[in-house]
């Protein structure tokens, strides 16, 4: 049974829409509330929808930064390679092998970073980080638990929604008619000829 659940991964048998949220924290709060009410939350999924890619520009790319990023990457690669080769070396040769691998990786990384930056031709003179984010979050629940989930989730108190529902304007009622208001307005006397 456990293996079957692992194979299913992120799927539900017959998922049904339970609620939409604009923020992930609100969706998380709703699931937490359902859990507090002893609802079987293992039958719920939070699905991010309306995905968009966000690229945050972190700074300007220069020759110095390109060399620095290349040096850091090369040094890490050299360290990894030096440690692997150092495992098979004599005990006294281990440190010189690791240090020389770091040095070679650093030099190679600087050269490679500068070549890569030169090939951009100035078309991308900035650094950035990219992330895919959702703009809306949907709660899905197994079809057999949909009614229970809606009932329990309706108990989640949201003062802003309750306040606006309590203060919703009603249709204006007509003022009661008084006897004076029911009579037609007085008409002007007919005009006299020659006046």
Automatic annotation (TrEMBL):
Compositionally skewed regions (Pro residues) per UniProt: 182-195
Q: From start to end residue, where is composition biased (Low complexity)?
A: 161-181
Domain General stress protein 17M-like span(s) in chain numbering: 18-84
The residue ranges crossing the membrane are: 66-88, 94-119
Disordered: region residues: 161-195
Asked if Transmembrane is a keyword of the record, the answer is: yes
Query: Mind listing the UniProt keywords for this protein, alphabetically?
Result: Membrane, Transmembrane, Transmembrane helix
Protein name, entry field: General stress protein 17M-like domain-containing protein
């Amino acid at each position: 049974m456990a293996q079957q659940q692992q194979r299913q991964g992120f799927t539900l048998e017959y998922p049904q829409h339970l609620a939409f949220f604009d923020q992930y924290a609100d969706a998380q709060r709703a699931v937490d509330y359902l859990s507090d009410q002893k609802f079987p939350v293992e039958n719920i999924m939070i699905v991010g929808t309306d995905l968009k890619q966000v690229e945050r520009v972190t700074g300007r790319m220069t020759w110095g930064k390109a060399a620095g990023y290349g040096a850091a990457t090369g040094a890490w690669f050299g360290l990894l390679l030096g440690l692997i080769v150092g495992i098979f070396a004599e005990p006294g040769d281990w440190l010189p092998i690791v240090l020389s691998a770091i040095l070679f990786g650093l030099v190679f990384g600087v050269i490679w970073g500068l070549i890569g930056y030169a090939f951009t031709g100035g078309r991308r003179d900035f650094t950035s980080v990219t992330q895919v984010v959702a703009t809306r979050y949907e709660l899905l629940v197994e079809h057999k638990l949909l009614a229970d989930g809606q009932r329990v989730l309706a108990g989640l108190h949201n003062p802003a929604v309750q306040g606006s529902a309590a203060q919703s304007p009603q249709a204006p009622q007509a003022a009661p008619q008084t006897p004076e208001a029911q009579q037609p307005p007085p008409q002007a006397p007919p005009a006299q000829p020659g006046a």
